[in-house]
Amino acid sequence: MGAQASGGEKLGKGNLSLLDVIAQSIGFIGPVFAAAFFIPTIVGASLNGKGAGLASPVSIILTMIGICSIAWIISRFARRIHAAGSLYDYVTEAFGERIGFVAGWVYYGGVVALTLAIGLAFGGFLHDTLFFNHGIDIAWWVLSIAFWVVAAVMLFIGVAISTRVQLVLGLGSFLIILVFSIWVIISVAGDGGLSAQPFNPSSSDQGWNGIFFGILYATIMFIGFESSANLAEETNNPRKHLPLAIFGSAIAVGVFYVIVTYSQAVGFGLSVQAWLEAFPPLYALAADPRFGSSGFGELIQWLVVIDIAAVGLGTATGSSRGVFALARDGRLPSFLAKVHPRYKTPYVASTVLAVASVILILIIVGTNGLMAVGEMDPGEWFPMFNWLATFGGFMMIAVYLGICVAAFKGMPGESSGLLALAGIIGGLVSIGAIYGVIVQYADIPAYNRVWWIAVLWLVAGVIITFILASRGTFNRKTV
What we know:
Elements: E1 3-4, H1 18-29, H2 31-37, H3 39-43, H4 56-80, E2 81-82, H5 87-95, H6 97-134, H7 140-157, H8 159-190, H9 207-222, H10 238-267, H11 272-277, H12 281-287, H13 294-328, H14 347-366, H15 382-406, H16 416-440, H17 450-470
Helix pairs in contact: 1-8, 1-10, 1-13, 2-13, 4-9, 4-10, 4-16, 5-6, 5-15, 6-7, 6-13, 6-14, 6-15, 6-17, 7-14, 8-10, 8-13, 9-16, 12-13, 13-14, 15-16, 15-17
């Protein structure tokens, strides 16, 4: 039997199936949204113009190998430890209570940042989809707040509702985009336009430097594959289902990204310039008469909005469980660990996150963006969304690196050699992504502060650790 929560408040046990936990991981990742807006940044539509160009599939394949290595390590932990804290609990087992808390502080700080970001994106993209297609002008912030009202109710009543909505929204849009991308490849093949160039590293006009920079954004596209582990206490067979969901989602999404990226490369005739000019390229291909139609192009836009909703539910579910786990262990205020007596959900933690999201939305509206709005930004919501997404992803990747280091300590019943190999491969990809944020963003205002604000957050966690230790509160309620 795996280690489980043994004290304090308990979440609803055995409510979730394998499909539910798969939906949580896929929903958190948001592969359709990522394919629409992060693949172009891998190609070269990044803030500093760097990218892998035509060799973008190479960046994704290399990233997939590293992410699958990390996923394998996490899946080994998930077989034995069945608690809502996921990576926080795993690092705690490997390195002890204090380092474990700091890891949880950093990891869930990142997840909360993504949760705050995604509500902004939902309102912004839904507004643009309604306005530019049908002339309907509803303020983005009204739509964002409406999303959080609905999400808060769903999370309050039960996580099964959230995961099943994610299953329909996230996996449904995932399959439609996958089939469309395969259709593009088949159509191009009929015209003799297929080529192996996108899989040749020499096709990158910026060389390996561009390919490695592409890994930064490719890593961000996978973030959240492990989030199903947050549902360990609510899953009917966590020992079996969680490893399948964690490792399986990383592989499935990786294959999806490779197919979608290759379809775009050949769909635009192997021209990087045409690929970048048709932003977002997924919309452009869908509306291209060779592969789709204007109506289908609009459908793809709606699928992206739907996928963003699934991401929002995924991040909210993951962050609320993480905050709950930290509070239950005495690391955060105890009221955040309250469980609803009927629904067995961490209703206080999820409500606090929803309220915080609404407050941020109102602050952005009141300050006309909070951060400066550039000429290329689609609205006042975008700068804060983009910054929070970068910050959140950076902190989560830092904890992925910690998990890779933990692999070297070994695990009961697991091959120490395989764990070490996975730790090396996953660690290299994590370090590459961290390096990308620190070095590649060095000259970009606001983004060059991401890494040192993350360091300040880490230092705050260390200070809190010493305070908790001095009070004798490191007395875990979970094992």
